[in-house]
Structure formats: structure tokens, C-alpha cells
Design goal:
Elements (H helix, E strand, L loop, with lengths): L2 H17 L2 E6 L5 H13 L2 E6 L1 H11 L2 H4 L9 E6 L4 H10 L6 E7 L2 E4 L4 H6 L3 H25 L4 H12 L1
Antiparallel strand pairs: 1-3, 1-4, 2-3, 4-5
Amino acid sequence: MKKELKNQIIETISEELKAYPNFYITDIAGLNAGQTSKLRRECFEKGIKLSVVKNTLFTHVLKASGNSELESLIETLVGNTAIMYTTNANAPAKLIKEWNKKSEKPALKGAYVQECAFIGADKLDELVAVKSKEELLGDIIAMLQSPVKNVLGALQSGGQTIAGVVKTLEEKNQ
């Protein structure tokens, strides 16, 4: 491979890492053409970009980043490597877990999720539990709505007078 082509591939990988804040390093070797096609289709449907890379070129990108968390993932670049780029932190983990119910591939080697490195297949359950931005916002909104619901409930059950509302709120605090 010519040096110009290698530099172009390294630049492309670097741009992908800038565009997608999370990525998973996987091994998809051993999947036949039909399985690979199905995996790519499912990735596309879930907003995941699947790309096969050369370990040496990906190593150059990780070293050039100057980020110690990214550099720690270099040890996972052994054998065949496919990268799953995503904006949804746990989507690839859920997809891998779903596929692992039927076969051992794709196999998780490592991941960079929410600016933290995860190394090893044993981290899959931990990565599945990571909440996406949308899920965290939903949790925050639910927590903020709870006190409002209490006040509205007090207003409705205490009647239309201020005394009734105060009495209901006092009873709830005891």
C-alpha cells in the first residue's frame, strides 16, 4: 500500500473519530457474507457506522490523538478489527449482546464511550447499562416532574382553598 493511500485512510479514520464521540472495537471475522450483510443492515438501522480497519493504521490514529484513554485501546488491536462508530453510547453494546445470543461474533474487544475506555468482552454488560443522552434527559425530566405532581395532587385533593392546600402539604411532609 502506498504511503499516500495510508495517509488518506488515517485521515479518514481521524475524521470518523471526530464525527462520532463513541466507538466500539469488535471482531467480526468468521461471519459469512449473509451474516455480515445482515449485521451491516442492523447497524445502519440503529445509526451505527461499521468499518473494517487495519490495526496498524488505527494504531497511528490512536497514538496521534494524544489522549491516554484512546491510547489504552491499542492493546485490543489484535487480529481482525471492525469499528462501530456511533453517537448513541449503548446502541452497539445492545446490538452485540443481541447477536451473541445466537453466535459468538461480533466479539467486543474494547470501546471508547463517553470519554472512557473499556477493554475486554467482559465489559459488555457494563456498556449495555450506559445510558444515552436521551435516556438521561428522560430521567432528569421525570425527577423534576415528581415535585410538580405532588403540588398538583395537593391542590386537587385539598380543595380550592389555600388552607386546604397547606393542610394537605403539611400532611405529606409528616
